[in-house]
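Request: How about a record?
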Amino acid sequence: MAQLLRGSYGFNLKHAVLRPALLNVPRLNFSSLNGGTVNTKFKSRSFLHAVPPGGTFNVGVRSYGMIVARVIRGALRLRYLVLGGAITGGVTLNKRYEEWKDGLPDMKWLEDIFPDNQQWKQFSKDLAVVTKSVAETIEIDPRLKQLGEQKVAEWRTWFDSRLDDAIEAAATKENQQLEVAKDEIRIKNIVNAKTLNTDDSRRKYETLQQQNEALQTEIMNVQIKYQKEMEKLEKENRDLRQQFLIMKTNRKTGTKKIKKSLIDMYSEVLDELSGYDTTYSTADHLPRVVVVGDQSSGKTSVLESVARARIFPRGSGEMMTRAPVKVTLSEGPYHVAQFRGSDREYDLTKETELAELRREVELRMRASVRGGKTVSNDVISMTVKGPGLQRMVLVDLPGIISTMTVDMAADTKDSIHQMTKHYMSNPNAIILCIQDGSVDAERSNVTDLVSQCDPTGKRTIFVLTKVDLAEELANPDRIRKILAGKLFPMRALGYFAVVTGRGRKDDTIESIKDYEERFFKNSKLFQSGVIMPHQVTSRNLSLAVSDRFWKMVRETIEQQADAFKATRFNLETEWKNNFPRLRESGRDELFEKAKGEILDEVVNLSQTSAKKWEDLLTDKLWEKLSNYVFENIYLPAAQSDSFNTMVDIKLRQWAEQALPAKSVESGWEALQAEFNELIQKAKKLPDHDGIFDNLKACVVDESVKRHTWEDKAIDMLRVIQLNTLEDRSVHDKQEWDQAVKFFESSVKDKLAHTEQTLTEMLGPSTTQKWLRWTSSTEDQSKRSWVKSELDKIIQSDTKHSPVLSYDELTTVRKNLQRSNVEVETDYIRETWYPIYRRHFLKQSLLRAYDCRKAYYLYSQGSENVINCSDIVLFWRIQQVIKVTANALRQQIINREARRLDKEIKAVLDEFSDDEDKKVQLLVGKRVTLAEELIRVRQIQEKLEEFINALNQEK
């Protein structure tokens, strides 16, 4: 290739590679002054390409010699630019292919489909031939032929002899010296231009200026043409990739998976670090591109140009970016976007899905600023993939404001400043400083903030937006100073000028790109040399940012990996010292283990014996029903003249109304009690882990609250209970004895409860006072006086009714007054109720003793000899409790245990997705230490995986 170029144009490959250094050397204007002679010496060897052999340029020979020199130099400069760009393009294309090929999985079955290395080499040779043919189409200006072949050969020989020295000098000169030389030469040009007094010299000078502008325009056209050719080749490359994916889909791929892209792996590392350290300080040590700027300066538009899609919502003068948006750009066959944690992919080639994406971004932003806030620190993460995208991670921040409106929160301005400083303070963050070119530089707020965070400018890239508006409004010299870093009090690695549209919401990225190219092609700023070619277009900006991003990633990732290795070692040592016999398990694993144990206990419900279920249900039923039986059935019937009739009425009313519902309630309580008992038994096992106790208790309580008995069970029980209560005859002696025993135990329990109530009312007895050294309260002493009077009434009439008459109440009050005890009528009634209850229960207990052996008399119908209606009542109640307990047991085994199992599974599923609930219920040093250790291991593994992939890409 080098021989080909030297043979065609007289220079080697080395000259083309160093082309940018030569092109940045400023132009010199030479003129004759009244026929005089001007000798010019150059202090820097960087400009030897503009000086003839001997080091002195004699201006007095003839002025047309100056014109010839300028034209030849411009033509040769154009030739080097085109050929250098073509050669560099070929190398870049080959490199891109190698990167793409290395990123593919090992698919040896495609060797028969894709070309081999020899074929690719032949393709490279063909590309070189095409490059040569393209270069040959650009001919030197025909006007040069008029100067004669001999003159051209002389200049070519002179240029080749001095080119090596010029390359060496250009490589050693600093940018600052070049800028000083540029200013000196501009001053000389101005002086020379002012000395052109004659009409002929002035016309020659204007002709030179027109030729210069024409050459600048031609350079821009060639650059655009070359860029379009590159895009065409990239499109063909994308088509090949898509065909590869289609072929891969149509064939069996086995167990191999396509590798993750390098930038996706890096983004996952950032996400892991953000989740590990809630303060986000750990992740700050890794590079990312932070996009900052004043509000409405064009930050979002720049990011969209880099991403090649209109992915953000827009508003006229309204703050739209209210939260940090992390965008991970990566290359892929299809142009799609996806939010972190979401499975949906948005097709960025369809306007409908673009609109849905922008609406989703806006909804997420508004959701993050609830509670009266204007901006939020909650990060919205998304991934954008597409052909030709530069791989990097960008964070778009809310724009810096200088004035707050009435609808903003009071701390909005300070919050934005703190958030921006926080992200820019990361020593490895690349600051993409966006400045609106259409406004006065004195109105900028962001540049001062950037200069504070990065005073040396080692990680700042300056971007001047809206250059199309700036061309009309601003002084070109002012724009030149901005892009040279001489206007703002800040430093930067590079300065770029971009055009991101005409302010129209409906413009597509393609139309914006075309508009940007047309603007710079025809811009006076570019043609006059105010803006250099490498400083324009969003594409050049994205390339520069991506290169800097990956350079910083390679410099910092190893340090982070070493830091996490040390953290992991410390955590593992602490775990071994505190929990030597346990394996570190995170909350998710512990929750799954607890879930299995809880479901095992539900299964154990079905293994409970029928006898145990019936005993448990019987106890629960009588515990729930006993008070109603005594207070609403037995006692009212005992006070009635027709005991059996009253009992029948009360029992039927009870069975039709309250009894079925109370029975279901008792059944559910029995089911809950048995389940809790199984859990308590599990706690006593040797392998029980107490870390699950809080979780199990919460799951059981929540399941119990949600579980309800089947509605049809109440109707079924009502029919069974009504039919059972219709039977009024005790069938045999065994049932009679069971009824007597049931009656005695029930009365004794009630009597014990009544005695306890009286003890609380009357206070300790005389014996207790002496033995326990206790005394009665004033109220208890007064109750004792009332009791003594009421006992007289009961002793005088053992069959007294439950209610005291008015005369009896009056007599008791008068008797107490004689003893200087003043009480009210209600006070006497309150004391009478438990006293009479105890008397009645004692009488009932005596009848139970009499009826123990009275079944023979009952079976013979001799009820006039002994009255055992109490026993029959309690036998009927006992029978209804038995059949109810049996029905409830069948419902529990057949239906309710499974329904409870479903409720518990539903609660467990909800808890499994609720991280806050896990943190609340699974607590302790064992859990927190294991969680941290697992997370550190995961981050370290991702870091090592990323480092390995990064090294392979090198």
The chain has a mean pLDDT of 75. DSSP finds 33 helices and eleven strands in the chain. The CA atoms of residues 496 and 541 lie 7 Å apart. The first strand starts at residue 39 and ends at 40.
